[in-house]
From TrEMBL:
InterPro entries: Znf_C2H2_type. The keyword Zinc applies. Residues 196-223 form the C2H2-type domain. Keywords: Metal-binding, Zinc, Zinc-finger. PROSITE patterns: ZINC_FINGER_C2H2_2. One of its GO terms (molecular function) is zinc ion binding. This is C2H2-type domain-containing protein.
Amino acid sequence: MLKQCLWQSEPLTSKGGQMAVIHKRGSTFLAENYRGIMLLPTIAKRFHALIRKRLMVRLHGQRPQCQIGGFAHMQVPFGSQLLQVFGRIMDAKGLSSAIVFVDLTNAFHRLIRELVSGVHLPREAEEILQALQAEGLPAHEVAELLELPCLLQQLNEGMTNSLFGLHKTFFKILMHHGASFNPSPFTSLEQPLKEFACSCGKVFTSQQGLSCHRRLIHNEFAPEHAFLAGLPDGQEFQKKPVEVQGLARVETIQAQGPLMHMEDRRRVQISQLQHELERVQTDLLVTELPPEVNTASKELRTALSQTTKEWFQLFCDEGYDERLAESLPDRWIVLLGGPEGHYDAWFEAEFMQWGQDDLPDVIADFLDGRAESLVDDAFCELVALFPRFDLMQKRTLLLAKLNCLENEIAGHFPHRT
């Protein structure tokens, strides 16, 4: 406040804030269901509100006639309508015209970005000083910034987990301890994060999701400004950081030492499995079986289960235990001797073990000709839908892994379950 009142200049920290990522609606795994809100410092907002009315009165009489931004009763659509009318008038009169969009602050922010992030300056400090003075920034303020190793290092106090990025002004991506961040709307951070991890000798794993620990920045890695040095400064990074094509996430970094607690790693794995399970269930809905195929499949499994029990009983009655052991795999024997409900699981599991070419002969031999009509009518439909059974197997495995991880967390961390 003293700097603003006595020097009549706005501090650099008033131009930035905290970027909060907020879920709007729908699936949490889709980037378009998130939005970003820049939270400005409270002191800066109060100061702006205090002087805004007085400034508006003074500027209103000095503004150009075509200036519409920042004034009352000037809505955003009015600007586009004004340009459209101007273009139509010029076109009707047959006159050449042009509409020029000028960003007067772009050069200033490109220079400020280097000072804020602490990256290596491509020009000498004197040249930077001259350029900033030409933009109206006081020399003593520039000198103060040049003496700091990284301005963001001061802003990091009190933050548990964070990643930093810059876009014209600076913003911070906040995360809670051990929280999974799926997806990251800031896709421009993905490649720089990977390059930075490689430069530090870390392993960049292809895991979907991110769980940060405070040691990721403070202890294990180089200072914050070293990470920011890897951020691109070209045209690619000038795009809106919230633009996401499809599903993109900042991936997990793993170093030689444990960066995350055991509980954090397990929760990240659970989040990844849940995302994969949601995708598999969506694919299953797309490949849903028609009613007639479901009926044929049920009849085939019923006949197969009955024949299996009869065959097994025949072997047991005649004492062909050795022959049974040689003819059937071990997993079949376990299932055949189990409860009634195991037969469906057996059929589904064995159906997916064979290829499409081998399966008809195996089923026909196993049924011993007792259900040939069912095989002829229903088996061709079942083989055509073989990918669906593969999805069912994958869903079963995912559910089993999720159950194991949840039980592990409940056993080791019962107070947090």
